[in-house]
Amino acid sequence: MNNNMTPVARPMHAWLLLLCGCMSVLAAVVIAPVLPQMQEHFSATENVEFLVPMALTAPGLVIALLSMVVGIVADRTGRKNMLVAGLVLYAAFGVAPVFIESLPTIIGTRIGVGLAEAIIMTASVALIGDYYSGVQRERYLALNTTLSSSSAVIFIAIGGALGEFGWRTPFMVYSISIVLALWALVVLWEPKREAPQQLMESLTDEEKAMWNPMKIAGICAVTLVGGILFMAVQVHIGYLLHGVNITAPSTIGLLASLAQVAVVVGSIAFRFLLNCRWFITPVRLGTALSLIGIGYLLIGSAGTAAEMMVVGAMVTGLGGGMLLPTMMVWNMSNLPPHRRALGTGAWMAAFFLGQFFTPMVVVGLQEMMGTHAAAIGLIGQFVLPIAILLLIGQRVFRNKAVSLA
Predict the structure, then answer these.
(1) Residues 46-68: tens digit of each pLDDT
(2) CA distances (Å), 46 to each of 50, 52, 61, in order?
(3) Could you report the per-residue pLDDT of 2-26, keeping only the tens digit for each?
(4) Most CB atoms within 10 A, among 11, 68, 239, 324?
(5) Four-way CATH pick for 11-189+212-398: 2.170.270.10, 1.20.1250.20, 2.60.120.260, 2.30.30.240
């Protein structure tokens, strides 16, 4: 502790908060390999082709609706206790489908998972912002993607392996959040909070000027689209691999985990490039979107070639690994202390709203194009040209681009 008896943030605290952030990834990927099994099990349920993917992405809608509210509450009341409560709720709602027979009821428990995720993600990221600053904060935010994607490799493989014992079994993995709740309860602390008037008086002019709702809205708009691009292949990987005659859940889990390895590599590359002066926000976005666009085009042209499908998923993952920390750091760098949880909540809302819309976009395009792969390829035809224009444009309008960084 320092002279004011205030706890000092150590790497251990950052790792705990980063592990809490992994819970959103777990929710998104651990049951992905068994979605085809779920759809077969509930085949008699009306609109099952939409409902089953929403079992995976319904939490995104709840996060989108509640993250800003959670952020406002966290700014006013604190973060730690909210984080612990969110972790406990996550376990309770996450495990519930093991014991439920109705698909609509399962969707209801997934809504509960979304509430828990909104609390966990907003509180944990805001605490990283509270505990750390400067380049150290940026590196931890980038590490958030690295660790989340690394855990996704494990969670997808575990989900696929457990799927061999039935589609319900992977839901048991959600109970891991209880361990994190106990750990957080013991080692974390609530940052010292000042009264609103005192807080405003303590802010520098630069910090006061940072809060620009229109700019945050623009960042959130980009994040919403980015959320769809980041999640489309992850959510539909089972269907994409079924299209090239790979149907075993364990194999799907293994191959999907390879795509997550690429996400890890992309996020590590992002961290190493942070010190490069030329690696400003438009360059980061253009590079990430270029890789995603190329990956999508490879998937769209794979046909029955499983190898090309896997390569396309890995290239997409590489771009996604750069895209997510780009959007997160871009947002956090524009948030003053007194609006940190609110701005974080707004960003979370945008990202997970994109996650929720993902199956609607992909399934809607699939009905038009004929296959999931063709739908992904069509999206790539729009993404790649935009990425190229962004990279070219940032050189032409360099001075304006630097102001976005």
Answers:
(1) 888 878 877 877 787 788 888 88
(2) 9, 11, 21
(3) 445 667 778 888 899 999 988 877 8
(4) 324
(5) 1.20.1250.20
